[in-house]
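Researcher: I'd like a structural prediction for the single chain below. Treat it as a standalone chain; there are no partners to consider.
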Amino acid sequence: MAYQAGGQRPAPRPAPVSPQAQDYLRDYAALVEAVPFPSLVVDHRWDVVLANSAFETLFRAVGPHPTAMPGDNFLRFVLFHPDAGSVLGEHESSWCLPMLAHFAASLERHGHDPALQAVRREIAQDPLMEAAYRQGLPHWMRAMGEAAVEHDGAVRPLLHPDPRWGVTDCRIVGETPKALLDMGYTRLTMVLRGRRPATARGVRPRPRRTAGHLTVVPAPEA
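Model: Treating it as a single chain, here is the predicted structure.
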């Protein structure tokens, strides 16, 4: 496991500003690698700074994509990769909408960031995703509340390529030490919770799509 490399991006990811920060990240990479569950460190754009072998294993069957590989930018993967739903169960409601909500908040805080602006333009190019972002997302957030948006503590379905896990759930645990926070980074770990029946509601992968990113705009609950 090492710093994630390559991939086409709208703008380069920021680097630590000091040799001390780089040394810390090298040591922190060893800690992340030791975790048996998928774990990653991202910046405010969701560019992946570190990811462990368990994370790479989870997404090993994902096909190539010029801008939305999970090890390059996790936000873009969730929103734009046609294979995202083959790993992220209940992709639209459990992953895409919460990520759209976080993206909207990031855009408010970092509105001039060219990488975030590029994501916003790509959303606008897809009619269903644009409708979800402009109309569906505000209703969904009001109906579901902050708990549905927050990553830390959320339990979300996965379709793990390892048959020992198969159809499972993960609890997302946010665990960001101050040193990472000071660099503008966040760490998230997907704690796998055990295999569940493959017939469980809503966890079958959606068909691979070649155009568009959403199939429906979820209606808010009454």
